[in-house]
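Re: glutamic acid structure - here you go.
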Amino acid sequence: MDTEQVITRFPPSPTGTLHIGGARTALFNWLFARQHHGKFILRIEDTDKVRSTKENTESIIESLKWLGLDWDEGPYFQSQRTKIYYEMIEKLLSSGKAYYCHCSPEELEKKRIEAIKKGLKPKYDGKCRDLGLGKAPGAVVRLKSPLTGKTIFKDLVKGTISIENEQLDDLILQRSDGSFTYNFAVVVDDSNLGINYVIRGDDHVNNTPRQILIYKALDEPIPQYAHLPMILGRDKAPLSKRHGATSVMAFKDMGFLPHALLNSLARLGWSHGDQEIFTKQELIDLFSLEHVGKSAGIFNMEKLLDLNAKYIREENDSTLADLLLPFLSQLGCKDLPREKVKCAVKTLKARSKTLLEMAQRALFYFQEIDYEQQADEKFLLPDVLYILEDLLLDIKGATSFDQKNLENIFSTLLERHQIKLGTIAQPLRVALTGKTVSPGIFEIMEVMGQEMVVKRLSNAILHIKSKKGP
Ligand code: GLU
């Protein structure tokens, strides 16, 4: 690579929120720019006035921020850049590289149908190409594409791609309502912003030769292209709603950590040997377009869950507490003491695949509990009543409530009753949490604190007594 500064871009259309595919494109552009100490530019392609919304724009920006994909310039908005498009149309018209076409949509449709009937590829026949027509109501501006020769480019992922110019239409640059087409606006913007690497999904590969012809007509340098392979679900079908959530914000709401998602996105089409887990810095250092494969990337939710669990385990308790609070609040536990949440996190982080799951598992610390029916029937039985009652006395009399002291209380209790911890652990767990699965008994008791443990034990004792009948 020469010494020119690398400038990449991410140009989402705000006709929807940011999905896995778009996020992967943004990530690869970001990684490439960061690796080369270049620039990453955000441009919102909001020319489709009907389908573009402010909410989608905000959501895309929020998603990028959440993923930590920061940009160096922008966001630019295409809707605010029409002046440049007008200027470039003028430039092309005055240099004879574009022309006004007066053909009506009806006329074009008729010709299209005739061509299909004759088994030909429908294409504009160039009727107005050399007529030197001027601006008129209903007129469009078309590019005067070369009629012969080939357009060839070296895609950094797909290799050399060549297409006969004959196959390419005199494509429309400006519509009769004055609006500009995607192919035109994207080239004007990319060249105006100095973009020299266009990394995007391969659904755009067919646009590239057309865009190259526009660059040539504008006499602007052509960027390097890298078209990324599609993303499929594990069933090898293109990733869609059928595969579950695909929008980045949905992953946030499900309780994924941004880096877990980034790490999974990075592996969609790119690889570095067998390595699955990368820090952000490793991604920046190791990413290379040469190692983006030609075959589709497979999005694997199971792997993402495992990665998320790993990053949750490795995150510090304090950060996790801050991340968990909004989830707990959504589940009805508002304004919780942060310190207690932090202690709860410590007991749960080894077992939670998502923050949402962690919040659900943490509820017993913060909300009244109900006994799960099966757990209740199996474990809250009269034969453990006397042990629970004895334990309650010990707990009430405890002078400190740390794990060490709790262990001492239990060992004397077990000794006194000549039983093993196994006899009492599950009934106690159900009494304290309502469930048969929870972190270790001593851990949870310490987090709950003496008062709550006394209350839950007393409730369980009353509950068992009520089963015995009068
Ligand atoms: N706005 C286009 C899209 O979202 C950008 C395509 C491109 O990268 O040129 O698909």
